[in-house]
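Handout, tutorial session.
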Amino acid sequence: MISKKKAIIYGVLLVVITFMITSTLNIALGGKVVIPKETYEAYKKYNKMIALEELVKDDFYQEASDDKLVDGAIKGMFSGLDDPYSQYYTKTEFEKLKEQTSGSFVGIGVYISPTSDDDHITIIAPIEGSPAEKSGIKAGDKILKVDGKVVSAKNSDEAITMIKGKKGTEVELTIKRGEQILDVKVKRDEIVSKTVEGKVLDNNIGYIKITSFSEHTNKEFENTLNTLKESNIKGLVIDLRDNPGGLLNVCKDIADSLIGEGTIVYTKDNKGNTEYLKSDKEKLGLPIAVLTNEGSASASEILTGAIIDNKVGISVGTTTFGKGLVQSVRELKDGTGYKLTTAQYFTPSGEYINGKGINPTIEEKDEEKQLDVALKWIKEQI
């Protein structure tokens, strides 16, 4: 009889030999690689793309670049999401994206965005004092061509590259404004975005205009607000008109210094997970009126919703843009990156504003009267 010890050894050897045979059969069979059925089914959907790649390389009249073909395929995957805010960026494009959030670049000075209304690139707002503003470009203008080349939301990255260039050179934009088609020449310049401006108005009411939420906006806001506090302001107007949004964490920090303990915003991802951004007990303790219009988007809407829903202020003006989606930006190891819509956001009261915006507490369509209406409300609260 075989001893118990030998039986165990034979058993282990049998398992090892069986594993080796199975692995060998899986690795090579008749000179072909054999993979599990589940893996094959997962990759089968790419057969058409691989076949087309070969056809393109064989038949295209020039030598095709592997890197460009791969980048194009990845861009196509993001495009297949049918989400205007999700994009893949090449290394060069991602560097420019980071540049946008830093607040300094060479260009004409406009904030742009795709919209769900059409396939055009829409100007959310020109930067105050920028070459674009001086050339007469307005919020809501649609960019049809750049230097005669047709552009659309699908190739917005290419359009941005074409619009930017060397300082002192000109670029011609063909824009649609209502039913008008206009050709506008703009001279490129270095754009250093000062995102916050403040002053004291009559009756000791503070006024702060925020043009975007970039990396340095919170510091600028803190300094401006502290200066206004030293002047013993009795109320505050925050002007978010034509503010296209920006960094969520910066918006959160600003809201945190205004609303006291409460919810700033909450998000839901595709699995139903909910995340709340909260503020602490720090509170301005003064009546706040926010000025909004159709150019107030994203982070501007989050700040507006936080102020209104936490009952520390109101909004005056017109309905905001309506962007209630959160994007995550990731840089990959090779310097490329992507922006992907990963969640929906809701105001503290549970309002989902995507596509509809935030209606003003007091509607005033005449922009020249909006500040006066806000000041009147604040005076009534003092």
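The second record follows below. Compare its token runs with those of the first.
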Amino acid sequence: HRAWNCLLAVLLLAGTIIAAKPVFAQNDLGPVAAPTTSVSVSTLPVVRSESQQITDYARGLFEGLLAREEISHGALVIISRDRVDMAEVLGDEVGENALFALGSLSDLFGVVSVMQLTQAARLFPAEDLAAALGEQEPRGDTLGELLSQRLDDSSDLLASAVEHASGMPYEEHISSQILEPLGMARSRLEFGVGMLVTAGDMSRFLSALIGRDGAGGENILLPATRDLMQRGHYSRHPALPGWSYGLAEMYRNGWRALHRDGVFMEASLPQSRIVVIPELQIAYFI
């Protein structure tokens, strides 16, 4: 986890540098005259971009964990603005299409499903949870409280709300409304296991979380819906980080980041993590 937090610090620092750089339009540039004589050129030094330096650092971090035998293999995905900086599987005897189980991180796909149904006016975060589940007796808790991790049994309740509002099985909604539009052809929701994903497919999911279009040129969430999902909705105290819908807040280097860990019942520590920095349009999955 120290390694994961170091990676976040580097991404935030690089994102700050990139965000601070001025952007000039083509018509801001002065005229350039063609050379009239030959120019001798010596060997040029290789200059690594910020993006390349980030991936170099991340790959080195991961390979260090492998060398110390702290992990045997893993996936690392980094997205920034309009590009995929990195989507790699590292380790012995694993290929680029290796599947990784997300454990409790699978719930984030359920949260996105609820947000899709919210933008379709089939679910409303402020309504009593009973209405979202099709129950007659009010529960006294809202759908928004479920989305901001304030209720128990969140996985089952998310699935039930999606099924009631969409009129289709939970697995079918995930497949037809998230995986297919994003081109996540190798990933699937497996009963009793949760989401199984490849590194390449996770790059598409992260892209949707920061606002990039899916495989068919569409996005699974409208900008207003994505902003609603990533807005702060609950905190135990104004001075403390809280929760958006589906993601916990944390602050590093002056920036607000959102994260969610994936834990398996038999594991003592998280085995996966998603981090999204909305303002910088940067995200990573490890």
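Points raised in discussion: Residues 148 and 245 are 5 Å apart (CA to CA).
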